[in-house]
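Revision sheet: structure tokens.
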Amino acid sequence: MSENKRKLSLFSFFAMTASLFITVYEYPTFAMSGMTLVFFLLICGLFWFLPVALCSAEMATIKGYQEGGIFGWVGKTLGEKYGFAAIFFQWFQITVGFVTMIYFIIGSVSYAAGVPALNDNPMLKFLSVIIIFWIATLLQFKGTETTAKVAKAGFIVGIIIPVGLMLILTIKYIVVGGHPVATSFTDKGFLPKGKDFAALASFMLAYMGVEASAPHINELENPKKNYPLAMFILVIVGILLSTIGGSAVSMVVPADKLSLNSGVVQTFQTLILSENGQLTWVVKIVAMLVAFGVLAQVCSWIVGPTEGLRTVAQKGLIPERFKKVNDNQVPVALLIVQGIVVTIWAAVLTLGGGGSNVSFLTAISLTVIIYLSAYVLFFVAYFVLIFKRSNQGLERTYQVPGGKIGKALIAGAGLLLSLLAIGSSMIAPSELKGAQIHTYLITLGISYLVTLAIPFVFYRFYSRRKSENKVNTAKEEQTI
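Predicted:
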């Protein structure tokens, strides 16, 4: 494949990156916080998402740091072990996140198809998750160009159009139709109270993944100019769409009637059928559109983090068979292992999650805190870069503004919010009651501790030994 064919335009790269984190499936979770969701989305957008976007733009444009995305950024500053842990966390979190995303797809499809058992029967739901995921995985074997096309279509058809339609219909529903705003939205003020901070982690998820497209930076047209530009546009678009979507759902559907994995469809159902009860078919079409938008996000995530893992394989930190790619430069062996892990998570969360909302909330919280572990390493690595590596003359095409002080303040805000969100995740959401709280905390706590240990144990007993053997072999070859 020629280099020209693999180049991504600014919009293609923007759409691929946007579909990594901008999605509609999180809106019902945001809506549970009522009016406070606006506060959380602004705070997380300005003091977490913006620092991630700015710092990743700088690190991705440092000469020699592009390889492997977050693995290279963390590994070159904190050391190989921590770089390996960072890329593992980035990859492993999405194996949980896939289940969350596909829950939403199933909820939408079950409504559109008129088959509620798909969403209510645990075994059918589990089978649906793995069928959807494995089909999406097989589609990715055709390479980045295919992923970019799906991402563009999904972003426009499954995110931009539904969110725009939701905004228009919500205004018409409340202002023109005179329907009251749900009290679950107005009962909570703009500023959160102490117990409301338990929801902080779920709002971080609205912006996670902006840096995951960095391994594709060399496929972007004029990356020195277009990568930072794409990051700035994404910050603005991400905050706007999440605020509009979450607020609309919260205003229209009362919290006590809201389903976390089909709440967007519930919202459209209320908005459309309140005007004409015969328009159920329109709701079904919209349900399929938003399901396609989330499917595009699944497709974008399938390949992104595995590119970083392939770099790890090339360095001998995981078995070498994982560095092999097909004719379309796709690491097939990695995708198959990823599919197996997703299948296991689907079984754990769907068959042992304690109910629909419990499974959904546990999956979201686990996704967030695993990913935040990677972001903690990322921000620490950035501090090392600006303070300990500042005199090494590292060439870069973009700098976070404000000099050392400005960089430290921006990165510090991101690091602080990351740590606060991890801590707040260990507080059971107010939506859960009784035995659900116990199930949530036990499943989340054990899963997180096991996940934290995996990369360091693996590195201790496999990766470091393989890396040392590779270095020794290279030295022997040089001697000969």
